[in-house]
Every structure is written in C-alpha cells, then in structure tokens.
Amino acid sequence: MTEKMVEYKDSLAFIFWRNPEQKGSVLKSIGLLDKIRGLSKKDFFLYLMIMSIFLPFYLFLALFALYLIGLLVTGEMKGIIKGLAKHPVLLFFIAYSSIISIVAKNWLGLVASLLMFLFLIFFSFYQKRLTHAFFRLILQTVLFGSVVSAAFATLEHFQIVEKFNYAFLSPNMQVWHQNRAEVTFFNPNYYGIICCFCIMIAFYLFTTTKLRWLKVFCVLAGFVNLFGLNFTQNRTAFPAIIAGAIIYLFTTIKNWKAFWLSIGVFAIGLSFLFSSDLGVRMGTLDSSMEERISIWDAGMALFKQNPFWGEGPLTYMHSYPRINAPYHEHAHSLYIDTILSYGIVGTILLALSSVAPVRLMMDMSQESGKRPIIGLYLSFLTVVAVHGIFDLALFWIQSGFIFLLVMCSIPLERRTLVSDMTD
Fold first, then answer.
1. pLDDT digits 0-9 by tens, 12-53
2. Which residue from 66, 329, 375, 403 puts its CA 20 to 30 A from 299's CA?
3. Which residues sit opposite 59 in a β-bridge?
4. Which residues have a Cβ under 8 Å from the Cβ of 338 and sit 6 or more positions away?
5. What does the pLDDT look like over 304-349, one tens digit per residue?
C-alpha cells in the first residue's frame, strides 16, 4: 500500500484516539464503533449509561437506577461510598439540602437532594474510571448525539413528528411549547443550553486534533447545533453561546486571530438571534421581561421570608402559593433561585465546595499546552453564568449531567500530560 493510500485510509475515520494499552501507538483507521469495542466491560456499560442521556428523562432515570443497582450487586458501591469522604463539604451541602427540605415539608426538594447524592455516587465512579482517551470518546459521542438530536429538532420544527408528551407522568408536564423544539429534553430552554454545551465541545475537539475529518465534523456539528438552538427559539442561549465562544477563543488562541474569530462568532450569533424563527420571539421581549421581573420579585419576596436557611431545591414551586405568585417550577434565575432554595448558609456551602476544582484549574492554567481544556471549562461556566441570568436550565437532569461529564474531568486533565491531549 502506497504512502498516499495509507494517508487517505487514515483520513476516512473522523474520530481517533490514543490507546494507552498499546504503549502510545496510534490506532489507525478506526471509527467510533471500533473504539467502543476496545472498551473494557466496565467502561462499556458506563459508556452506555452516559449515552442514555439522549433518551427521554424518565427512561434515563430508569437506566440510571438500574446502573446504580448494578454497582451495588457487583460490590463496586462499597468502594465508591468510602471514597465520598474525599468530598466532605459537598456531602455536608447535600445533607443540609435534605434537612431543610424535610423541615419545610418540601418533598420534591428532598427528592432533588437525593438525586444530588446519587449523582455524587455516579460521578465519583466516573472519575475513577475516566482516562483521557475515554473522555475524548465520550465528548465525540455526545457531539454525534447532538447532531442526531438537531435532526429530530428539525422534524419537530416542521411538524413532521409529534413532540414527546409527558402528561402521563403529571398534568403539569403536558406540552407547553408547541412551536419550539425540545427533542427529548422536556423543555426548549433545557435543550437550548445543551446545544450551547455541544457547540463548546465542538470548539474544543476542533482545536485539539490534527485530523482533517474530525475538524470537518466539528464544524458541521457546530453549525447543526446552531440550527437546533434556533429551533428552540431560546433568546437567552444566543448571548450565552456568543460569550462562551469568545471566552474559549481568547483563552485558547490569545492573538489577533482570536479577535477576528470572535467578531465572526458575534456576527453569526446575531444573525441567528434575529432570524425568522427567533425574531418572532424577540418581538415579545418587553412582555417577557415584565413576566421575568414579576417572577424575580416573587422569588426575592420568598427569600426574605427565610433568608439564612432556605427551604431546599425547588423552593419557588413549593412556596409560591404563600404569596399568591404565579406557578413556575423555579425563579427563572440561577442566582435568585440558588439563594432562595438554599439561603445564605447553603449558598456559602455550595461556594466552598467549588474551591478545590477552581484551584485545580488555576494550576492547569500555568501550562500553556492546556489552554484548550481550560477554555472548555471556562466556556461551560460562562454559558451557565450568562444563561443563568434569565433561566435555571442547568438544574435539569440531562443538562446538569452533561455539564458534570465535562467538569468532573478536571482532576484527570490536571494529571494528563500535554503531549497526550491531542489526536
């Protein structure tokens, strides 16, 4: 086989990885399925569990419960529980959240607190099993899943398929947004922030590979997710994605190229923001802002009733009748809802639990070769911070799960050599 034929053959697979089991040798000409076949049995089931995030949330939760039961049956759970002692502040926060929920008789808040604990168990095991190659496989598959989701969003938008209806679970879960795509993520705003995350993943994979077809796929996936985001008609997501992309570019590139790329991102974002689909909702921005402000006022009124302790997750939905406020699941602001639900004490605990990963990120920032992964983390945080001004999309099972898939890799990437961080 000639050198040119080998090069062509290698370029056909758009996703590659370095196999640590083969002393650094690069496995050539393999696709996604080949990488999956190379996983150990434990990693394969973990991988399947992670990818089930693209199913409707009730199916995901059923599989999540079965997976945790599997860890219990195989004896893995004992080691995981022992390892939780490494996260005392986070454990204390979850216990605190549970106690204040019980005191306030906020039973949905107690369920949410229990789910936090189960997520802590799962992601502790995830961190234990994670390698850089496995992490890249997860990111690549999530990006592929987002393309499939965007295709489904297109079918929803043109009413070729019907939206998922969750009314069989609760009357409050009926379809509220007939003209906005939400795919399997229950709410257009939740799908919107997931699109933002996937676009940031596309940026990261694009800048950390030399493989032509992976770069092409990342560009296509980025634009496909922009169209998916457009079909959600999520006004808040576009400022979030513009800010996240600019932060990523300036963190990673740090020269005039970053400036001009940022201008391009800003222009593309604005063109989508005022497109035909989203432009219709932009016309109702004034009335929507009035509604948001009324929700924020109600949230702050509830906060003042119990400023120090809070009443647990979903306090707004639990307590809104007390002040005759309109029904909403949350206060439509990450910042207001956090202090409302956990009070000043709980918010301080939550902030303290973030100190360790922030320190790890600061250590990583000293290595110039790790700029892309730092850019990914910062862009995720930027998307959450900007999107969180007007919504609480992160506090959903699927969006929160994808966020944690990336952010829980911080300890791993702190240890990973720069030479092993690119394809």
1. 333 334 444 443 333 333 367 888 988 999 999 999 999 999
2. 403
3. none
4. 347, 350
5. 999 999 999 999 999 999 999 988 889 999 999 999 999 999 999 9
Per-residue pLDDT tens digits for 128-143 = 999 999 999 999 999 9
Output the pLDDT for position 1. 46
The answer to whether 290 and 252 have CB atoms below 8 angstroms apart is no
Q: Is 379 left (phi over 0), alpha (psi -120 to 50) or beta?
A: alpha
Alpha-carbon span 61 to 327, nearest angstrom = 25
Residue 103: what pLDDT?
A: 97
User: Cα 114 to the chain's mean position, in Å?
Assistant: 20
φ, ψ of residue 270 to 5 degrees: the values are -65, -40
The DSSP string of 52-109 is GGGS-HHHHHHHHHHHHHHHHHTTHHHHHHHHGGG-HHHHHHHHHHHHHHHHTT-HHH
CB-facing half-sphere around the CA of 76: CA atoms within 13 A: 15
Question: What would the DSSP string read from start to end of 277-321?
Answer: HHHHHHTTHHHHHHHHHHHHHHHHHHHHHSTTT---TTHHHHHGG
* Residue 271 token pair: 């063109």
pLDDT of 25 = 35
Distance, CA of 207 to CA of 194 (rounded, Å): 20
The residues of the chain scoring below 70 in pLDDT are 1-31, 174-178, 254-259, 269-270, 272-287
> What's residue 165's pLDDT?
81
Question: So what's the pLDDT on residue 416?
Answer: 87
Q: Residue 200 to residues 81, 148, 414: CA-CA distances in angstroms?
A: 33, 17, 20
How far lies 197's CA from each of 223, 260, 319, in Å?
A: 13, 22, 32
Give the DSSP H or E segment for 151: helix 132-157
Give the residue among 193, 197, 285, 273 at the shortest CA–CA distance from 233.
273
Token output for 301: 């009124």
Q: How far is CA 66 from the centre of its chain?
A: 22
Say which residues have a Cβ less than 8 Å from residue 88's Cβ, sequence separation at least 6: none
- What ranges do the domains of the chain cover? 88-283+348-420
**What are the structure tokens assigned to 163, written together?**
């939206």
